[in-house]
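Here is one such tokenized protein:
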Amino acid sequence: MAATSQHGAGPARQAAGGDGGLLLFRIGGVPVLLAPSWWVGSLVIVVLYAPLVGRLLPDVSTFTSWLLAAAFAVLLGLSVLAHELGHCVVALRLGIPVRRLRLFLLGGLSEVARTPRRPGQEGLVAAAGPIVSLLLGGFCALLLFAVPPDGPVWLLVAECAVANLAVGVFNLLPGLPLDGGRLVRAGVWAATGKRAKGTRAAVAGGALVATALIVWALWGLATQSPDRWLRLGVCVVTAWFVILGARSELAAEARRGWPEGLQLADLVRPVLQLPAESPVSDALAASAGRGVVLVRADGVAAGLLDEQAAQQLAGTTPHAPAELAAEPIRAETVLLSSEPGEEIAEHVRETPAWQFLVVDDEGRPSGVLRREDLRAALMHARRRA
């Protein structure tokens, strides 16, 4: 679950792939996109599934077989969409922002804007998708008893049941990037207190899932299974997706990690409070190696001194109030010194700001953390490791 959304992009740009695909609709402000690769995956499904429809319903015409195969591709896409909407709605209810929901090739992705803070949140978001899929699959399976058997309508309902049950069961397999892998990570995380251990366990599960998919596809070829070519195509693409997703999760966990022994106190710069009306040239001189909080006469912070803006202002009007070169202090640019290092690193990585005010548990400024200082420290620690 990752990438960016552009909420201001228009339909033409979306259709051209400027925002990852065609904008279908929005849910809770979250754009739902259809990636160009979805059409490719659907075409593959239609080509591979049409001959199977002809064998299941030998009395139907070739055109009807292709039409039912196309219907299966659409139903599979809708099943994936319902699955991802389950993730999206639960994440939003838990206060976890979602950048976008994207359907692509043979799958979908709900791209959350930040990592769940607790294993319980990870587990709830992960479980929501399969629960929706299994409920829809069960409903369609019951509906089969109300539909005349062995006809096109019966096959459509059966396709819907199979699509949803397949999406639900497959996603419960215990390996990243599947939901079952996220449940494994949540469980190991809850048991050990270490998210990284959960990620490594779930990545190993992803490797096993990919291997099992390839073995199942080869078994279908060896036994001349009627669906062997459909099985081979789906399994190869899905195994490739699982492998890439597991590697991506492992890399993201490495970026998120906080080196042992590294202390936030070693990275923050001392904080200096100056009157907001101080000459910008004086504030700039006092900022060497420090973060400067500019405070108005009423005691309200005007912001953090932006050194680049201060230098430009001082070059033309050195006696101008330093407040004119202040960067506003927003909720997302304030860090608690007691926060875990992993959460601080992730927060800084996701927030478009170059400096952050660090406060203690009582809200008193204790320093300023600059993005460049954190990046340099993390890179140095990783090179040593």
